[in-house]
Amino acid sequence: MYNTDNSKVISVDIEKEMNKSFLDYAMSVIVSRALPDVKDGLKPVHRRILYTMHENNLGPTTAYRKCADTVGSVLGRYHPHGDASVYDALVRLAQDFSLRYPLVDGHGNFGSIDGDPPAAYRYTEARMSKISMEMLTDIEKETIDFTSNYDDRLKEPVVLPSRFPNLLVNGSTGIAVGMATNIPPHNLSEVIDAVDYVMDNPDATVSEIMDFIKGPDFPTGGIIMGYSGIRAAYATGRGKIILRARAEIEEKKNGRFHIVVTELPYMVNKARLLQNIANLVKDKRIDGISDLRDESDRDGMRMVVELKKEANAQVVLNQLFRYSQMQETVGVIMLALADGQPKVMTLKEILDYYIEFQCDVIRRRTAFDLRKTKERAHILKGLTIALDFIDEVISIIRSSKDQPSAKQALMERCFKPIGEVHMGEVSLVDYGEEGVYLDEVQASAIVAMRLGQLSGLERQKIEDEFAQLMERIKELTAILNDHQLVVDIIKKELAEIKRKYGDERRTEIQMISGEVDIEDLIPEEDCVVTLTHFGYVKRLPADVYKTQKRGGRGVSGMTQREDDFVEELFISSTHDHVLFITNKGKMHRLKCYQIPEGSRTSKGTNIVNLLQLEADEKIAYMISVHDFDPDQYLVFVTKKGLIKRTELSAYKNVRKSGLIAISLNEDDELAFAKLTNGSHQLLIATHNGMAIRFAETDARPMSRTAKGVRAIHLRGDDYVVGLARLRENATVMTVTDKGQGRRSEISEYGLQHRGGYGKINYKVGDIKGCVAGIKVVDNTDDLILISDDGVIIRIRVSDVNIMSRYASGVRVMRLQEDSKLVSFARAEHDDEEEIAHIEEDSDSEEVSEEELKKMEQELESEEENLTEEE
What we know:
40% of the residues are buried. The longest helix has 42 residues, at 347-388. This protein starts with 13 loop residues before the first helix and ends with a helix. Helix content is 29%, strand content 24%.
């Protein structure tokens, strides 16, 4: 159909035309703009920038050149789009907070993590970085395919040789039509190690690969919470990773706390984050912040959040994670072009594609080198012919009017050794009976020879070079015929790249509750866990403390702030659950290995960094459990003498914010908690020397939130200091705060019903002190004792003799003046060599039988009076 002006009009179905046009546009965006190639990890614009800089000889050793020049060259040669798109891509390649290993070395203002824009391209300069040169190594050796540019005037690479796995190392983000990619960056050394492993183990699993690639490694650091998202992304190509800022709670000299942030999640704008936090404080969504400062400088990032005096630092930090970009969810979509088609790939598939690509690069490079080597050897044969027939060759060249005619004459001449032709001892050419002819390449090389190359010395050089070429041809041919040699070359070259550019991981990966598989990486060993009065907790291997003789002075256990001392100490396996019960009766839970390990003298980590505690809440007791067996019970005893028994399984699901373990009266607080099997006998001891023994069945099982019933009747200001489970063939160890200790038979403590006054356990006083605690022990045990000035001693229980309940005992730990023994724990016997040998303590009492009998009578009289009171 034609219009009146003779222009042709084509009728089309609008639906079909829209469908076709949109699909063409979508494929153009997917293939030619938004998605990286799995082989080199680059989008077309990044690839064109690097290739243009390579063509312009902008290497790391050359002078910087204006970015305007590079942008113009890219636009004119390969990228027919806007200059802003090219410059934005170039800027990102130069930002060390955007790329883990920047591919462009920028000079000038290339923006900042605060969101400051880069300067215009007429002001900034750039050149290739050192590592980007590895992206283009051997590109001139036909290692990759080229395609025509947009106007068929030039050729551009389809992909770059990329001698390291750039897709994983620097990651990629992009939004196409109907699909998007978000591949996080990784550590170069880890990725190279994984490539080596997969080349040796083609059937490697994701779990095995993760032994090398722990997870993403972002240029801005941060902390990844848990492995589940990483594992899902690597196994399926999709996953969600929780990334947190690195924040530490620091205590100031005035006792107040502040939060210091030194690393932010990837791609988070620091200035915008500070403004967001300020708005949250203004809207009262976050309470407890008094000031907010950015102290970042050329040495690194430092963002300080000052807290009010009454604020709980951990609560504020958790609110910051919850409401601000200090915690971000990174959605991983490992989508890239594979053979020109978009594909969501697993970690193993990405590595397989890269290895296959590199094998092809090495084979194509080797084939190129082999061809060039053979061509050179062919020319050397021609030069040898010229030297063998030097007089005739010179005559032909002199008699020719120009070089083309000389070449033609040489090509027509048949060279055959006859008459008086003088050749070297060994000729490189097999002339045969019919002689040989020169081809055009050989003739051109002969015509181009200089007179100096006609000497005998030059002939020797030609023969030596030819011998080397023959060895090289043999070597290259072997590589093409042996896949393992190709793999070995890749490994060798990757190892060199790792040596030159590899660095340490920046992003930490922390375990979170519920991810027990990480325990396979953690050795199971016994640890000493301590908690101080001011809430500093740490763990360290139990064998750090060597056994000493009783009465020794011990070794320094930790460095403490003034007036701080250890309140809790026990032995736990790294794989056990540690239950933290607070003075408010709430329970929190951590795996033992989640408690930071410290040195013997370190202060430890403040518990508010690990648990979500309220402002006036502190840890009252810790207990270690292996699992939540329904046949086991948790027995709680308060300082006021109440007891509550609840099935352990009731505490299986501890929330992150904790849960109620026991309800308490206003004037009471938790003293002890023990695991029992439902049929134990219990012994409860008090500070003023009383003790009561009864069956745990006397306290019926109660709900998780119950208050409990009376365990022992207390007098005056007395309070509970010990709870022990009794067992056969064991003894009761009583230790005072003055360092005195005594072992007695369990039978010394008669079985009673709960709720009574009990029996006299120890005659307290100013000299011998008050009871610090009790433990049920036997001769195979050791005791670890600690004083309020941080000194720890480990002694053998067998060093303490078994005595009557009425005896005062012996000195188990020699204390400094004004210091007290505050806690002790039972541990399995250690056969390590003793670190000190101390003679029998001269302060220990020698009591005659008459004196002991008199003491027993006095105590029995006191117990009769107590019975009458009951």
